[in-house]
Amino acid sequence: MSASLSAYADALRALHRPGDPLVLPNAWDAGSARAVADAGFPAVATSSGAVAESLGRTDGEHTPPDEMFAAVARIARAVTLPVTADLERGYGLKPDELVTRLLDAGAVGLNLEDSDPRTGQLVDVAEQADLLAGVRAAAEAAGVPVVLNARVDVFLHPDREPADRLAEAIRRAHRYLSAGADCSYPILLAEPSQLRGFVEAVAAPVNVLARAGTPTIAELATLGVARISYGSGLYAATRAHTARLLAAVAAGDPLT
């Protein structure tokens, strides 16, 4: 099992190419994961928010770990592609258990954010770096080169000037990469000149969240981005479309 997981992890890491980004329309269940695979995407990512809502929960670590990892396992079993899981800040699990449960679920990558889910505030950079280093050490002990995507939440907190937020995001990204992260994810950073500055300063794979107002995939590639995630966007669009269909059914109209 570890040999096949290692092959998936190597494949996932190789897909992080600055200027030729890995595009990840995030899945939330086995069916959506199969749809991603059938559309020709080379890997599947989960969205913690979408998974949580599909389970009748809310984002922010309100999903019990057993339920979250069971959902990740169903997704991994549904496809023959590398799977990377959005695990918020780890659900309070120790790094060894977090990595064990990730691998047992069949996933080979994970996102970890640097906000405290209880308060929504940024955690101390050294504390987050220790968590990431622990995950890297646990993955090495397991013999699987897990792909670790370190989310940087500075841009979720508009309490600083833009230049200060950029500088802090770069500082955190450097610390997280030094601790063993493979990719940095400055969520909500989308302004082209700031994004280019971040990519150039970090000099490692950078993940961008695609949403309204974000540059196009081609423009993000030109900026040197290596990974593009859609978060819970597809899930939200699917729910909105379902609501329209249900309204049509309630009105007695045929489905279209």
From TrEMBL:
CDD domains from the UniProt entry = ICL_PEPM
Gene Ontology MF term list = catalytic activity
Q: Which SUPFAM superfamilies match?
A: Phosphoenolpyruvate/pyruvate domain (SSF51621)
One Pfam family from the UniProt entry?
A: PEP_mutase
Q: Which InterPro entries match?
A: ICL/PEPM (IPR039556), Pyrv/PenolPyrv_kinase-like_dom (IPR015813), Pyrv_kinase-like_dom_sf (IPR040442)
Please state what the protein is called.
Carboxyvinyl-carboxyphosphonate phosphorylmutase
Give the organism the record lists: Micromonospora endophytica
